[in-house]
Amino acid sequence: MMRATWNGIVLAEAPRTVVVEGNHYFPPEALHREHFTESTTRSLCPWKGLARYYTVAADGAVNPDAAWYYPKPSFLARRIKNHVAFWHGVRIEGSQEPKR
Predict the structure, then answer these.
(1) Residue 59: burial class (beta carbons within 10 Å; 0-12, 13-18, 19+)
(2) Distance between CA 7 and CA 78 in Å, rounded?
(3) pTM of the shown model
C-alpha cells in the first residue's frame, strides 16, 4: 500500500500509484478529502499541461500548494488525469502492490 503523509496524518493511500518523472500520482479516490482545499495556484508543464494545486491541512497545520493534479492533461499524460502528486515535505511511503 502506498501512502502520502504529512504532519503525522495520512493524506492519501492506494494499492498502486502512477509514477511519472519520479512523482507518485495517487488516484482521486485515494485522497482523504477533508485535508484538501483548492488553491488558486496554477503551473504549466510543456508536456503534461496545466496543473492545479491543493493546499493541505493536517493536525492544525497548513501546507500551501503541497499537492497538484492535471484535470485536463495532454494526450501524452492522460494516465494521470485527476491523479494527485505531492511535494513540500509530504512523504511518500510504502510499496506498490502487484498488478492483477
Answers:
(1) exposed
(2) 31
(3) 0.95
What amino acid occupies position 33? R
Query: Using an 8 Å Cβ cutoff, are 56 and 36 in contact?
Result: yes
The grid coordinates listed for 81 are 488525469
Measuring CA to CA, how many Å separate 32 from each of 4, 24, 49, 73, 98? Answer: 10, 16, 25, 23, 23
Q: How many residues are recorded in the chain?
A: 100
Q: Per-residue pLDDT tens for 38-90?
A: 999 999 999 999 999 999 999 999 999 999 999 999 999 999 999 999 999 99
- By the 8 A CB rule, do 27 and 51 touch? no
